[in-house]
Specification:
mainly beta, Methylamine Dehydrogenase, Chain H, Quinoprotein_ADH-like_sf, four-stranded antiparallel beta sheet, globular, PKD domain containing protein, signal, single chain
């Protein structure tokens, strides 16, 4: 595989699967570059997760206060809050006092939300809350031990839980588990186990699913003993590791990053997914450090290659959202289309500070360039019918003040 440009040409595409159950929302056009003026401001810390429950956006991260866009009092909120998507009004009744950061959210049944992270109250690492008043759902119990939760995916009665934990409830589970969405009981039939985290500990960084596939990335080299360096696909019809294997993330990046995969999202039709990474610049090599890469979900074999790769030239990407019309990427990058850059703008690089969009077929950067204050970077995207929500640690988005939360409206 030779990366002399930001693009690896499409060679063949897998047959399209059935409609996905939890993949990204399809949008027919690229969103506007002008953010809406209604999203609330998070006044400190960082936003790392979104989910949508009805018309309510639930926001998670590490912060202590928010304020509505129209002004008013600062509202204390401990690492999670909720707002009405059409109006931006912060829900007054949803103010649970979580004592640690939130890293993952997923919509629950009956107006509830699953919350995962590093907190110990109201339940260690994983809880289910009523959106109406923030109270824990007493019938759900899945406390996490020896680590935290970093990713959640719900498919019907199943809730997939990823992180760096060693146990859920009384069941030993290393970094990955499936629990009952109603009760939290660990499913004994699902036992896929990541292994060998390259000295940095075993963990799942991100997950995304179709109706019959769960894609996971993280700090591992094996899944159930099968070689799967940092990326793997699980067949949900059997509960076993699928016959999908790539060596794309086997080469090492900088020593500071024993594992360098980060965000992951599946296309609306489930046929492909995109992975974004950190790792440090690696110009003129086949390494996928500081990159976005597309893979076909239903490809087979031991040498699956990315359909295309787009390199930043030395800056981390943390979040990705795939909508069909665009692949949105966010981090603290300065450029896209930059395979020859090493913390510099190489030939053909385009300036995309902090946020950008890539064509899903060609792998080249689109003209969409709203810009944002770079900071640590974008840590969360959420596609909704109304547009694209963005969560980060900075206060400037699209040349306007939008503290840590903003939304680009649908075109």
């Amino acid at each position: 595989m030779r990366l002399t440009t930001a693009l690896i040409a499409v060679t063949s595409l897998a047959v399209l699967p059935a409609a996905p159950a939890s993949a990204g929302l399809r949008q027919s056009h690229v969103v506007s570059e002008n953010p809406v003026n209604t999203t609330p401001h998070v006044l400190d810390g960082i936003v790392t997760a979104f989910t949508l429950v009805g018309r309510t956006v639930v926001v998670g991260g590490e912060f202590s206060a928010v304020r509505e866009a129209r002004g008013g009092a600062d509202l204390p909120r401990a690492n999670v809050f909720a707002f009405d998507l059409p109006t931006g009004r912060v829900l007054p009744g949803f103010a649970p006092d979580l004592d640690g950061p939130v890293s993952a959210l997923a919509p629950g049944p009956g107006g509830t939300v699953y919350v995962g992270g590093a907190f110990t109250w109201p339940s260690r690492g994983l809880t289910r809350l009523r959106v109406s008043d923030g109270a824990p759902v007493s019938s759900f119990s899945a406390p996490v031990y020896a680590g935290e939760v970093t990713s959640l995916v719900r498919l019907g009665r199943a809730l997939y839980v990823g992180g760096d934990f060693g146990r859920i409830g009384r069941s030993a589970r290393t970094a990955l588990a499936r629990v009952d969405a109603e009760t939290g009981a660990v499913d004994p039939r699902f036992t896929v186990t990541p292994g060998d985290g390259r000295g940095g500990g075993v963990g799942i960084h991100a997950m995304a699913a179709t109706s019959d596939r769960l894609v996971v990335d993280g700090s591992f080299t094996t899944l159930d003993g099968l070689r799967r360096p940092q990326l793997g696909v699980i067949d949900l019809t059997t509960g076993r590791v699928a016959g999908w294997h790539t060596e794309a993330y086997a080469p090492a990046c900088k020593p500071d990053f024993p594992s360098y995969v980060r965000g992951l999202d599946v296309s609306p039709d489930g046929s492909y997914f995109v992975v974004v990474t950190t790792g440090g610049p690696a110009p003129r090599t086949t390494k996928l450090c500081d990159s976005a890469a597309r893979f076909e979900t239903y490809a087979k074999g031991d040498a699956v290659r990315p359909t295309w790769v787009n390199l930043t030239g030395g800056d981390s990407l943390y979040a990705v959202a795939v909508t069909g019309s665009a692949v949105y990427v966010g981090g603290h990058q300065r450029w896209l289309n930059n395979p020859r850059g090493a913390d510099t703008a190489g030939p053909g690089a385009v300036h995309r500070p902090g946020i950008g969009a890539i064509h899903p077929v060609t792998g080249r950067a689109l003209r969409w360039n709203p810009t944002r204050e770079r900071g640590i970077g974008v840590k969360a995207f959420l596609t909704v019918k109304a547009g694209l929500l963005v969560g980060s640690d900075t206060t400037e988005l699209g040349h306007e003040y939008h503290a840590r939360v903003g939304m680009f409206p649908a075109a």
